[in-house]
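Journal club prep — side note

Before the paper discussion, L.F. wants everyone to see what a predicted structure for a comparable chain looks like in token form. Sequence:
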Amino acid sequence: MSINSVSFNSPQYHKKDKLEDNLNPVEKTLVNSVAPARRIIGLPDMIKQGDAIAAAGLAALTIVSLPEDCRDIKAAYDHSACALRKRRLPQAYNYKKYQHDFSFFRGTLLHEGMKRIKSEGGKRFVDKLYRADKTIYNTKFGKWLKKLIGIEDGKFVKSKIKNLYGKEISVQQTIVKNDFLGLKDLTARAMKRTTVLGLGFMGLLELPKIIKSFSKGKTTEDKTKSFAKQSTKSVINLIAINIGMGYLGALGAKKYGALGSLLGMGLGVIAGAAGANSINKNI
């Protein structure tokens, strides 16, 4: 899993999306579980509403992340096929006990290009990008939240997950106490599934709407109110969708591995977008 965790299902883009409106809940979940479909389903509506820049960015994201998306889809297919045939599927690690850190670059076309850079200056720049490719779990905010709710790092175990340099990495168990309904464990897993660069990219896709909102209204006061209103809505969209994908994707992965991860993310997008839409109606 890498850049594929990035989504863009802003509620205002889909309220007029006739294709998605014609789907039942199961079909919507399946569509949103397939990352390329999840991203491109809103492109026509984005273009119609004049957000061509955001649409172009989302289309570029879909292209560069396609290799990793295909690997995830294949992993989910292999998992379901083995389950139906009652065969044991080799796993990268024990998903019930551990969660590896997602990456924005790993497995994408961008990553493939980075690996081919030969110049010393280029390599140093790539190293900086690699170091910036961290999850919320490993940020100051993540460490603060871990301390606040009582999450500790446990033992390391070997896995078949590879880092950006192509070396197999260990995954670390999280230790929690008094974990009501397993929410602390899911919080830790969700943070490990959410990348800082992914959040930043989603934020950039929201920028065109925020900038455009400043042109609405005749007076400076009206323009400022419009700008503040859209900024608030965009932040809510960003947070709600990532929380939905993070928590439900983590729950699905913990219970059902690769297939559960994709289906959980699909449900998370729907739940997050619905929650954001409900809040934004009152703004």
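L.F.'s comment for the group: The longest strand covers residues 151-162. Keep this in mind when we get to the figures.
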